[in-house]
Amino acid sequence: GYAVHPNAVEAQLQGGTIDGISTALGQQITVKDGQIQQSNFHDYPLARIANFPSRFEAHILPYDDKPTGVGEMGLPSAAPALTNAIFAATGKRIRRLPILDQLKG
Question: CA 61 → CA 2, 25, 40, 51, distances in Å?
Answer without folding.
Answer: 9, 29, 38, 28
